[in-house]
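From the methods appendix. Each design record in this collection lists the tokenized structure first, followed by the designed amino acid sequence. Records were kept in a plain field format so they could be parsed without special tools. The example shown here is representative of the layout used throughout.

RECORD:
FOLD TOKENS (300 positions):
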């Protein structure tokens, strides 16, 4: 039995669907995400079941279909209706940012180069946070490979054959040996399992926080989890919740692009990047996304 739900949204004239497709095209082996033309197929855990989320872009419209192996709850249609605009970044008020800074000497050229830039989000805060942990202190390419092995060891697969990114409950029951065999360091394995258990036990109500976005509480609670630090939290707030004011000054790609934007001869330090970004609150993370785009590297 497969339950199928559908929903659609209109898109602004400057919507950058290529950015969304590129974000989900990171893994060249397409284990859990597959792109065909203007359509994304993404495997994920939905209410504990394997599901395939299909998002199709057609001009000024995006349509989504969610095929769940088994029955879907009565709350599933409303959840899908909220998920689609959030994943596409449609809840981000980028127009206000562009109006405020289109004439700024450094930000103006960035905006002109990437008008309408939004930050595509992961399907859930847990996916964003676990991805951030996976990618700590390693290259994007290495992190993608490690992410793929996490999906494989979790073992959730949709009936159409697409592997599914695991939810917290599935990660919580993995052993440290499972993750070590998949290539995770001991520290990262312990952190992922710890995070999975805290979320599964509702001690970290990530999904509930989507509606209220208590940033200070999220930051305080996550800082108490061994293995999670400021960069990981700011990245998860951006990719998991769509919060655009995290200061990603610790990100190497951000600092490298900022060096070019500011025309500096020497590398930009974390302190310098932090001070420069501070002027632009509450848009610091959105500016980081523009700097990622300048670097022409894969968005992490």
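DESIGN:
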């Amino acid at each position: 039995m497969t339950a199928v739900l559908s929903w659609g949204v209109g898109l602004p004239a400057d919507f950058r669907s290529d950015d969304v497709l590129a974000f989900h095209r990171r893994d060249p082996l397409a284990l859990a995400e597959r792109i065909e033309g203007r359509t994304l197929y993404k495997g994920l855990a939905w209410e504990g079941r394997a599901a395939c989320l299909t998002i199709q872009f057609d001009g000024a419209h995006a349509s989504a279909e969610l095929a769940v192996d088994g029955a879907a709850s009565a709350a599933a249609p409303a959840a899908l209706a909220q998920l689609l605009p959030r994943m596409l970044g449609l809840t981000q008020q980028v127009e206000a940012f562009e109006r405020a800074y289109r004439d700024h000497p450094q930000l103006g050229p960035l905006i002109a180069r990437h008008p309408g830039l939004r930050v595509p989000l992961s399907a859930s805060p847990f996916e964003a946070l676990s991805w951030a942990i996976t990618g700590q202190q390693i290259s994007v390419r290495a992190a993608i490979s490690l992410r793929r092995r996490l999906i494989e060891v979790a073992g959730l697969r949709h009936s159409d054959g697409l592997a599914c990114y695991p939810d917290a409950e599935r990660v919580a029951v993995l052993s440290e040996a499972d993750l070590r065999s998949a290539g995770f360091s001991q520290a990262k394995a312990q952190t992922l399992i710890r995070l999975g258990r805290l979320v599964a036990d509702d001690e970290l109500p990530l999904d509930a926080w989507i509606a209220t976005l208590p940033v200070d509480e999220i930051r305080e609670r996550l800082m108490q989890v061994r293995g999670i630090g400021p960069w990981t939290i700011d990245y998860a707030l951006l990719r998991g919740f769509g919060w655009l004011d995290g200061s990603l000054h610790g990100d190497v790609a951000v600092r490298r692009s900022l060096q070019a934007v500011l025309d500096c001869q020497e590398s930009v330090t974390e302190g310098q990047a932090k001070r420069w970004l501070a002027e632009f609150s509450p848009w610091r993370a959105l500016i980081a996304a523009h700097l990622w785009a300048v670097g022409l590297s894969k968005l992490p």
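APPENDIX NOTE: DSSP finds 15 helices and five strands in the chain.
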